[in-house]
Amino acid sequence: MNIKGLDYNTQREKLILPEYGREVQNMVDHAISLPTKEERQRCAETIIRIMDRMFPQNRDNADYEQKLWDHLAIMSGFQLDIDYPYDVSSAMKIATKPQPLDYPMQEIPVRHYGHLIFEAFDKLKSMPPGEEREELTRITANQMKRNLMQWSHGANDDEKIASDLARYTDGVIQLDLSTFKFERVQLRDDLNTRNKKKK
What is the pLDDT of residues 93-132, one digit of tens each? Predict the structure, then answer.
C-alpha cells in the first residue's frame, strides 16, 4: 500500500537521539540549513530551550546544560556552525558506540540450574564441614528448587534436587530430606492472588 503522506517510522531516516523525537531532529536539520550564523545561533538557542522543557526533571543534574549542547552537536552530526557556549568536543565520546561484549558461553551439564549454581557446587566440594558449608548448601538447594520450578512450569521434586546436589558435588553433599526444610517458593499465581486481596 502506497498512500501519499502516510509512512512509517521504519521507512524514515533513523533518529540519532530518539529520546528527543523526530520534530526536534527536523528543527536541528533546519538550523543547519540556515544561511547566516546569527540565524543558526538563534535557532540553536530556541532548540535548546525546547529540549530543556522536554526533560525538566534533569535540571538538577550536574553539567545539565552542557549535555543539552552536546546532544545538539550530536544530532547535527557536528555540522551546525554556531558559537557553542560549551566545549562540545567531548560529545564525540557520547556519540561513539561501545564495542559489543562477548557473551560468556560456558558448558554446564544442565542449563536449568545455571552457571552460578555450578560455581556453588564447586565451592561446596572443597569446603570443610561446618556451619558455613551448611548455609551454602541451604542457599544452593533452595535456589535449585526455584530454578527447577521456573524451568518446569511449577513442577519440582525434592528428591531430584537432593540427587542432583549429591551428583554435582561428587557425593560430598548429601541432603537429608527427613530433616532439611525447603523455603516456600511462591508462584506467580500466588503473588497475583495476594496483590488482588490488597486492592
Answer: 776 777 888 776 677 777 788 888 999 999 999 999 999 9
Q: Which residues contact 93 (CB under 8 A, 6 or more apart)?
A: none
- Gap between the Cα atoms of 67 and 94, Å rounded: 10
Residue 191 banded pLDDT, cuts 50, 70, 90: very low
Residue 103 grid cell = 557473551
What's this model's pTM, rounded to 2 decimal places?
0.49
CB 33 within 8 A of CB 74: no
Contact at 8 Å (CB) between 15 and 9? no
Cα 40 from Cα 31, distance rounded (Å): 5
- Report yes or no: 92 and 119 within 8 Å, Cβ to Cβ: no
| Chain centre distance of CA 112 | 22
